[in-house]
């Protein structure tokens, strides 16, 4: 069965592409989840219009993310944490802490867009990457200082 994808589907294709799939896969998975529609001429026109609208929205989101990245170029966050012997931190600074600090500076960044492999557990300056869009990322400085 030929279907037109309405969304990107892993290992199958991208939005708007016409793919040939097994009837059961289309009937039981793609069509009920609205990931695809049957490949008729009327549906081709509708999907093309949806694709154009999606591209316009995507372009606007990307330019907004680029503008936000320019604004965030000079952002520096400072956290004061309790430390023990040998300047070892009690606790850590997590993506949620960074998101809350950015929110306090009126930058609304979702916690999952903050790229931290693991929480920060050492004193000093750190560079943290923010994934603002699929193609746009920004880096901010995060300083961890001892609390006196």
Sequence-ordered SSE layout with sheet pairings:
Blueprint: E1 2-5, E2 18-20, H1 23-30, E3 36-38, H2 41-71, E4 76-81, H3 95-104, E5 114-115, E6 124-131, E7 137-146
Parallel strand pairs: 4-7
Antiparallel strand pairs: 1-2, 1-3, 5-6, 6-7
- Tally of helical runs: 3
**Rg estimate, integer Å:** 22 Å
Strand content: 15-25%
Report the major sheet: 4 strands, mixed
Q: Widest sheet: strand order? A: 4-7-6-5
Category from helices, strands and their pairing: alpha+beta
- Give, in order, the helices and strands: EEHEHEHEEE
Indicate the percent of residues in helices: 25-40%
Give a structural overview.
Helix content is 33%, strand content 24%. It is built from 3 helices and 7 strands; from the N terminus they run E-E-H-E-H-E-H-E-E-E. The strands form 2 sheets. A 4-stranded mixed sheet has the order 4-7-6-5. The longest helix has 31 residues, at 41-71. The mean pLDDT is 89.
What is this entry, summarized?
33% of the residues lie in helices and 24% in strands. It contains three helices and seven strands; from the N terminus they run ββαβαβαβββ. The strands form two sheets. The protein has a four-stranded mixed beta sheet. The chain has a three-stranded antiparallel beta sheet with strand order 2-1-3, covered by helices on one side.
List keywords for this structure.
148 residues; alpha+beta; 4-stranded mixed β-sheet; 33% helix; elongated
């Amino acid at each position: 069965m030929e279907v037109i994808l309405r969304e990107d589907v892993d290992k199958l294709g991208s939005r708007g592409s016409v793919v040939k799939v097994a009837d059961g896969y289309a009937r039981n998975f793609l069509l009920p989840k609205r990931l695809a529609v049957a490949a008729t001429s009327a549906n081709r026109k509708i999907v093309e219009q949806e694709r154009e609208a999606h591209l316009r929205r995507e372009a606007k989101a990307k330019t907004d993310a680029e503008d936000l990245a320019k604004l965030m170029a000079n952002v520096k966050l400072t956290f004061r944490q309790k430390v023990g012997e040998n300047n070892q931190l009690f606790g850590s600074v997590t993506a949620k802490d960074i998101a809350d600090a950015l929110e306090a500076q009126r930058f609304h960044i979702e916690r999952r867009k903050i790229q931290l492999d693991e929480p920060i557990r050492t004193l000093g300056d750190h560079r943290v990457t923010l994934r603002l869009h699929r193609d746009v990322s920004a880096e901010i400085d995060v300083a961890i200082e001892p609390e006196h």
